[in-house]
């Protein structure tokens, strides 16, 4: 596995990133970009080949996930509060799942990471420098794959799955449009812009996920296979 | 860090800081009573009191789930919620906001717990600085005695037990409070704390506090223009208040 990691910024008190082994792989992308399908495939593929994996995602912490969910239902959070609440959720999973798993040499598959959180906050007007300091607690992943899908295609996939569009994934709190459909398209295109802005500072590989599931799977396996080989 | 006045807010924010047992809460309460009696638009906000975040914080504390990082972040979330929901609109509306603890509490505690100072300060950088910060400085022994006499059941995080300073709750509390005091004193100059001698008698301190506030803030600008709405069952009182108001206008 890879030799040590480094934190983006200040890191976590009393944790030396260089002591972290394992491999941290991040899959980013909007709802409907095929993240969960691809992660399920990767877990299956890696475990079959004898490698231990752990999965993390957003809003899954023991500490605040319930409260965060409740607060979002009522839509009562202001943007700074929302940003810090999500950062708390991330930090709890980072310290309780990601760091211990890396120390034990696991492959950690993250179903979204700090980039989605930062992009969402940036679209809501939060300052990029502020966000970079906040998320300086995060270790730099070994690879980040951004599953890029055109907003029009995302609409089709989401509608065929749930017959509606998610309030938050449509950015309805931003008042971009009263119409859910229009708001979704505007919000997803703003998120795409925010990701491109973040790409300047964070190294992610863009995967064209407008293609079929199998085509994307094949590309991901190839890239991750090469990464694991390189790391020994 | 700009103050609310420097950032052109019509309102003003006054914060009190100090160790547990320094008597700061008593002083800010008495200040609030005075300002209310003077007919000033005043609002009081306490550290760690956002309804929204409360259940997560208390769960984290009870089950000892918090690390220095999540302890810091959850308190920042709590502060942000109060800041965006109450403080900002009130300060825009020309209120005098009184805060029992402000960002400096986080700066002192979180850094004592091992969080990098720049990280903590950066996270709170969305907040303006108070227009007046009073630091209640009591001898460490005096603060400790006040707390330990009155409320002998210390909580895990309150005593800094997460830092493993000592296996004994009281011993840990003493060391922890001492370190927080050091942090406070180290930033006192940088943030322009006005130091109040908290070993003095309560009344004597309050005279100083009220004088400081009226020297620093032109209080007559913050008076209510219209009387507070009263329940309909009190018509007599309402008339009196209106008469009072006529005189002042």
Topology (SSEs and partners):
The complex is a heterodimer of chains A (232) and B (249).
Chain A: E1 23-29, H1 35-48, E2 53-57, H2 65-74, H3 79-103, E3 107-111, H4 114-123, H5 128-134, E4 143-148, H6 151-162, H7 180-199, E5 205-208, H8 213-230
Parallel strand pairs in A: 1-3, 1-4, 2-3, 4-5
Helix pairs in contact in A: 1-8, 3-4, 4-7
Chain B: E1 12-18, H1 24-37, E2 42-46, H2 51-62, H3 68-92, E3 96-100, H4 103-112, H5 117-123, E4 132-137, H6 140-150, H7 169-187, E5 194-197, H8 202-216, H9 235-248
Parallel strand pairs in B: 1-3, 1-4, 2-3, 4-5
How can the largest sheet of chain A be summarized? Answer: 5 strands, parallel
Number of strands of chain B: 5
Number of helices of chain A: 8
* Low-confidence sequence ranges of chain A: none
Class by alpha and beta content of chain B: alpha/beta
β-sheet strand percentage of chain B: 5-15%
Radius of gyration of chain B: 20 Å
Structural class of chain A: alpha/beta
State the total count of DSSP E strands of chain A: 5
Order the strands across the largest sheet of chain A as they lie in space: 2-3-1-4-5
Percent helix of chain A, as a range, is 40-55%
The count of helical stretches of chain B stands at 9
* % residues in beta strands of chain A: 5-15%
CATH architecture of chain B: 3-Layer(aba) Sandwich
Round the mean pLDDT of chain B to the nearest integer and report it: 90
The CATH homologous superfamily of chain B is called P-loop containing nucleotide triphosphate hydrolases
Biggest chain pair contact, residues each?
A-B, 31 and 31 residues
Oligomer: heterodimer
Order of helices and strands of chain A: EHEHHEHHEHHEH
């Amino acid at each position: 596995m890879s030799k040590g990691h480094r934190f983006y910024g200040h890191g976590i008190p009393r944790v030396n990133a260089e002591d972290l082994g394992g491999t941290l792989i991040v899959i980013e992308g909007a709802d409907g970009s095929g993240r969960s399908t691809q992660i399920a495939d990767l877990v299956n593929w890696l475990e079959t080949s004898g490698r231990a994996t752990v999965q993390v995602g957003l809003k899954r912490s023991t500490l605040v996930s319930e409260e965060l969910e409740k607060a979002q239902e009522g839509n009562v959070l202001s943007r700074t509060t929302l940003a810090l609440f999500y950062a708390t959720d991330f930090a709890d999973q980072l310290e309780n799942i990601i760091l211990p798993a890396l120390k034990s040499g696991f492959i950690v598959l993250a179903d979204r990471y700090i980039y989605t959180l930062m992009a969402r906050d940036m679209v809501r007007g939060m300052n990029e420098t502020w966000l970079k300091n906040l998320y300086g607690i995060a270790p730099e992943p070994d690879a980040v794959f951004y599953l890029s899908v055109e907003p029009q295609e995302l609409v089709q996939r989401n509608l065929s799955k749930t017959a509606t569009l998610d309030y938050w994934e449509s950015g309805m709190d931003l008042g971009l449009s009263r119409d859910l459909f229009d708001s979704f398209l505007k919000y997803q295109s703003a998120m795409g812009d925010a990701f491109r802005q973040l790409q300047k500072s964070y190294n992610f590989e863009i995967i064209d996920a407008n293609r079929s599931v199998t085509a994307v799977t094949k590309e991901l396996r190839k890239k991750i296979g090469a990464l694991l080989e390189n790391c020994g | 860090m700009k103050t609310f006045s420097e950032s052109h807010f019509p309102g003003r924010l006054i914060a009190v800081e100090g160790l547990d047992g320094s008597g700061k809460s008593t002083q800010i309460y008495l200040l609030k009573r005075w300002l209310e009696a003077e007919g000033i638009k005043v609002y009081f906000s306490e550290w760690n009191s956002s309804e929204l975040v409360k259940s997560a914080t208390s769960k984290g504390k009870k089950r000892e789930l918090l690390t220095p990082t999540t302890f810091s972040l959850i308190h920042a979330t709590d502060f942000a919620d109060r800041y965006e929901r109450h403080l900002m609109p009130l300060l825009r509306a020309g209120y005098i906001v009184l805060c029992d603890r402000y960002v400096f509490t986080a700066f002192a505690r979180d850094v004592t717990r091992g969080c990098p100072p720049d990280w903590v300060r950066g996270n709170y950088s969305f907040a303006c600085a108070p227009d007046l910060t009073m630091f209640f400085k009591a001898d460490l022994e005096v603060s400790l005695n006040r707390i330990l006499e009155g409320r002998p059941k210390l909580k895990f995080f309150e005593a800094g037990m997460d830092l493993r300073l000592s296996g004994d709750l009281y011993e840990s509390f003493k060391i922890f409070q001492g370190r927080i005091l050091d942090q406070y004193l180290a930033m006192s100059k940088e943030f322009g704390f006005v130091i109040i001698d908290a070993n003095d008698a309560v009344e004597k301190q309050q005279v100083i506090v009220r004088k400081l506030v009226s020297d620093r803030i032109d209080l007559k600008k913050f008076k209510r223009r219209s009387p507070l709405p009263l329940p309909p069952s009190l018509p007599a009182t309402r008339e009196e208040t209106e008469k009072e108001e006529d005189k002042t206008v």
